[in-house]
Amino acid sequence: MLDRQRFLIKEQIAFLKTTDVYDIFDPDTQEQVGVAREDPGQLVAFLRWFVSKKLMSTRVIVTATGTDEVVFTIRKPVSLWRERVEVYDAQDKRVGYFRSKIFSLGGGFWVYDDKDEQFAEVKGDWIGWNFRFLGPDKEELGVVTKKWAGLGKELFTSADTYIVSIDDSLHDQPAAKMLLLAAALATDMIYKSESRSVAGDALDQTG
Question: What is the DSSP string of 10-69?
Answer without folding.
Answer: EEPP-TT-SS-EEEEEETTTTEEEEEEEE---HHHHHHTTTS-GGGS-EEEEEEETTS--
